[in-house]
């Protein structure tokens, strides 16, 4: 088994087929999208392939160490930056091919008009599991 991170981007990934930003969706479209995501996660959990996941707020702050005895340095929030991660999901699957299959399925979550978004998801193997992806 190998773990993969699926990253959903609000911005920063190539444009989706149904590229209407979520803030322009109706409440019903948002509800349908969230239900699809929840049902997807529950199915993976039942099948033993779900590790965790969460939607993220668009607000955030960069933080870094600034030396011994000094408070951390912060910069932000950066909601207007080019890349904005909407959420993430960690899966634990038998193969890279299975990870790609699940990412493709998740990409079809409904968006505006109830049509599949066909968004690009970033699929990243955990570093410790990276060797498993080339076998």
From TrEMBL:
Residues covered by the YCII-related domain: 15-109
SUPFAM superfamilies: Dimeric alpha+beta barrel
InterPro entries named among the record's database cross-references: Dimeric_a/b-barrel, YCII
Top-level taxon of origin: Bacteria
Pfam families referenced in this protein's UniProt entry, alphabetically: YCII
Family designation: Belongs to the YciI family.
Name of the protein this chain belongs to: YCII-related domain-containing protein
């Amino acid at each position: 088994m190998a773990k993969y991170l699926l990253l959903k981007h609000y911005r920063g990934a190539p444009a989706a087929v149904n590229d209407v930003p979520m803030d322009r969706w109706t409440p019903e479209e948002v509800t349908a999208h969230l239900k699809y995501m929840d049902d997807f996660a529950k199915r993976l959990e039942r099948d033993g392939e779900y590790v965790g996941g969460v939607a993220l707020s668009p607000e955030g702050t960069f933080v870094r160490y600034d030396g011994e005895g000094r408070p951390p340095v912060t910069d932000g929030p950066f909601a207007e930056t080019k890349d904005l991660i909407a959420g993430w999901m960690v899966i634990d699957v038998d193969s890279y091919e299975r990870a790609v299959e699940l990412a493709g399925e998740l990409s079809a979550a409904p968006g505006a008009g109830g049509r599949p978004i066909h968004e690009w998801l970033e699929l990243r193997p955990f570093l410790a599991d990276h060797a498993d992806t080339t076998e």
